[in-house]
Amino acid sequence: MNKIERTNELFMNGGLNCTQAILTVYGDSHGIDQDTARVLGRPFSGGVGASGQICGFVTGAVQVLAHVFNHPDEHRARKGTHPKVIAFLKAFRDKHGVVTCNELLGVERCTEEGEKRL
To answer: From the CB of residue 48, how many other CB atoms can be counted at a distance below 10 Å?
Structure first.
């Protein structure tokens, strides 16, 4: 099973939200253990606190990029991370058209009607 399949499995059948699944699978080789992945990813499901805003898969990937391009010097860390995040966001938008849960799922997550449609 590759990383994409493993992430999907954890999300669909493993009891993890989208951010937790990304952090668990991709963060492991960058110092993010499973417990930390669950804690850090918890509030981002459903587009940050189920608000429907930025997709949890996106926020998880951005957090992994922060670990991948980490550097002891904060300025260098940001300088290395920001272009990678911008490139990732562009690629995600090119593939999916949008980066928010509401738009990806076609519902308003933070409304009762939207939650019923999920």
So the answer is: 18
